[in-house]
Specification:
It is a single chain. By secondary structure, this protein is mostly beta strands. The protein has a single domain (about 1-200), classed as Coagulation Factor XIII, Chain A, domain 1. It is built from two helices and twelve strands. The protein has helices at about 1-15, 55-60; strands at about 25, 30, 75, 80-85, 95-105, 115-125, 130, 135, 145, 155-165, 175-185, 200. Strands 3-11-10-5-6-12 form a six-stranded mixed beta sheet. The longest helix is centred in the N-terminal third of the chain and has 14 residues, at about 1-15. The model is unreliable at about 1-15 (pLDDT under 50).
Length: about 240
């Protein structure tokens, strides 16, 4: 049976739909396409990013110079619920969903926002290991939301959604990253200190056990899907 699924994994990229994150969700209200989310290079093809070292890995903008300034910035409150909606499809592939944020200097619509060691993780939905196999809670979602920590300081931020598809991740460069960056201005914030801070690109080498993994033939000593410190930092809870 495992061999059968492994064969399916090799042909899945040819027949399965990919996805983007064009729509921003704030307290139940959904924006139009690419209003508050920077339009990505794959807005038509929906192809993933596979290089974790390229500048495109940060937000995968259509234009690394101009897209940020052409995107609006949504105003939200600390402690409110935000999220992103996919275009037409579910998060079809088995994988790991997480969200990073970065304080945006000088502003969220600046091309230089998020270019340093400024990113922290605020949400994750990892695979679940049970009875010798992995299941993937994110796989059937067409949207997701999470609560901004109430202690998040006021100011402008980038919100980077990332779905790491693992169906062909058994060789280096096989993991597929689906990315979208929203621009937000946070009001009514607190005095928390987000962290740990990482750089994007730079957060991954691509060799982490949570990224370089054969999900159809797990190691004999496998006990859980590795997330903290192998697929990025721990989630900042506020």
């Amino acid at each position: 049976m495992k061999a059968f699924f492994a064969i399916l994994a090799t042909i899945a990229p040819l027949v399965a739909a990919h996805y983007t994150f064009p729509d921003f969700i704030s307290d139940g209200e959904t924006s139009g396409d690419w209003v508050y989310v920077r339009q990505t290079q794959n807005y038509e093809s929906q192809d993933p990013v596979t290089s974790v070292t390229s500048d495109e890995f940060r937000c995968y903008e259509l234009d690394l110079v101009n897209t940020a300034s052409e995107t609006q910035t949504a105003t939200v409150s600390a402690g409110s619920t935000i999220g992103l909606l996919t275009a037409d499809n579910t998060l079809y592939h088995p994988g790991y969903l997480d969200v990073y944020m970065s304080k945006a200097e000088p502003a969220a619509n600046s091309e230089s926002a998020g270019t340093g060691q400024t990113w922290f993780k605020v949400y994750e939905l990892p695979p679940v290991y049970s009875n010798g196999e992995l299941s993937f809670p994110s796989q059937t979602l067409s949207s997701f939301t999470f609560t901004l920590p109430a202690s998040l300081p006021s100011g402008q931020y980038l919100v980077r959604a990332e779905h790491i598809a693992l169906h062909v991740a058994s060789t280096y460069g096989g993991a597929q990253f689906y990315i979208g960056c929203a621009q937000i201005n946070v009001e009514n914030g607190g005095s928390g200190t987000p962290g740990p801070l990482v750089s994007i690109p730079g957060v991954y080498t691509g060799y982490e056990p949570g990224i370089l993994i054969n999900i159809y033939e797990l190691p004999k000593n496998f006990t859980s899907y590795p997330s903290h410190n192998v697929a990025g930092p721990a989630v900042w809870q506020g």
